[in-house]
Amino acid sequence: MAEVSPGRARQVPLRHALPRLARDPLGALVHYANEGDGEIVQLNLGTFRPYLVTHPEHLQQILRDRVTYIRDGNSMLWRSVRRAVGDAILVTEGAQWESSRDTLQPLFTAKRAETLVDRMAVAIAEAVDALDAPARAGEAVDAMTLMSQIVCQATTRVLFGRKIPLADALQIYAHLGTITRTMVPRLLAPGMPYWVPLPGDRAFRAAVQGIGALVLPIIRKERANPGDGDDIIATLCRPRADGSQASEESVRSDLVAMFSTATETTIGVLSWLFPVLEKHPDVAERLYAEVDGVVGVRGTVQRTHIPQLRYTRMVLDEMLRLWPAGWTIPRTAVGEQVLGGVRIESGATILVSPFATQRMGAFWERPEVFDPQRFAPDKPKRQYRYSYFPFGGGPHQCIGQYLFLLEAPIIMATLLSRFRFRLGQPADLTPRIGASLRPRSSTLTLLRRDSVPAS
To answer: Secretion signal: which residues (predicted)?
Structure first.
């Protein structure tokens, strides 16, 4: 690592940091991470001067400690998220976060996730089978729309007890898409006061109101006729262990946050499947061979199939490495801290970026290359736990991690067992920034497996 003054992070001056981040935020994070092999750097962005922390040893210290390094809902980078979902489990800390976590955690344990596999597989198969019509007609479809229909159907049935109609779920997801898209100007100008209008502000507010108009009647109906179901809506609406009742606004916040987490993450990550198949035909053929051998052409995924879909999981893990759903995770230092020999002042913003760390040459060979073999079972264990952390880590690790790692392979295998895909434009693996990272290639044609040759 380059030498720095004792106790002080390496400084990136305004004239370098601001233009580079404005031009290519993701590329800038990777550049600064690799430039010093993970040394802590401070980015001068005018009135906003965050620390970029990318070394796994430092990340472990930050992510496992929710007392010293917190998610501050009032901080510049979390404020836009809080405006969208309110005081939800995604943004809160302390007693409020613990209450939401204790309420929701039992729904997302590894053991319970496994009990949902069969129901999930049926819902996914029905959604994928509905794609036969555009496939027979040779119609081009939008990849994000395709994936959102599959994921929203599975999510509303399995996690929300069919209490959100599919049409409403797709509308909520569309509103969330508007929110994540219109948040970007605020995220790229974190010091800008909210009384200064930015592009997208009006659409952002309309989308938040649109979500409220859809979910509040569902909450009120559940409270008027409470049930004993184990879905998210029933769980949030029933009295807590201490007899207290969450407010309507609190239920709304956590419901929207959980819907967003259950849909946005899965759709965002799996949307990379199509350009990967196009760009890497060797990966595609090995995937198809595995799915054909385990599930069969136009077969139905069973619970016993999932452990056998090893290469499918390797491809999924590599997509999570290159395009993690949470590409940056802001934290705020509580009190003055020393991290990796660097003094961090109280209230400072710390940028943790799975996207940057997971593309560092110090921890990954040929980090920019898509190579599922990195995750082969016979590979040596990675030196650092936090060189790969697509779900975050510590107490705030993604609550739906276990469910995602079951749902995503089911979706991949179900799609591959029925269709081949042709993109409407050359595959582009350069991501678009939003709440999650999306591919630029969007339209594709579906070819039924029982009507086309293997290549």
So the answer is: none
Report d(CA 195, CA 213) in Å as an integer.
25
- Return the CATH number of 10-448, one of 3.40.50.800, 3.30.300.180, 1.20.1250.20, 1.10.630.10: 1.10.630.10
Give per-residue burial for 280-299: e unless 16+ CB within 10 Å, then b: beebbebbbebbeebbeebb
Q: What value, to the nearest 5°, has the Cα angle with vertex 334 and ends 2 and 255?
A: 110
Q: Are strands 349-352 and 51-53 parallel, antiparallel or unpaired?
A: parallel
Q: What CA–CA distance (Å, rounded) separates 190 from 81?
A: 12
For residue 152, say whether it is annotated as part of any ligand binding site: no
Distance CA 327, CA 184 (A): 13
Cα separation of 166 and 147, whole Å? Answer: 13
Return the structure tokens found at 375. 């995750």
Where helices occur in 49-130 by DSSP H, the ranges are 56-63, 76-85, 94-104, 110-115, 117-129
Contact 3, 329 (CB under 8 A): no
pLDDT digits over 163-209, tens only?
999 999 999 999 999 998 888 787 777 677 888 888 889 999 999 99
* Residues 121 and 414: beta-carbon distance below 8 Å: yes
Spell out the residues 6+ positions from residue 13 whose beta carbon is closer than 8 angstroms to its own: 44
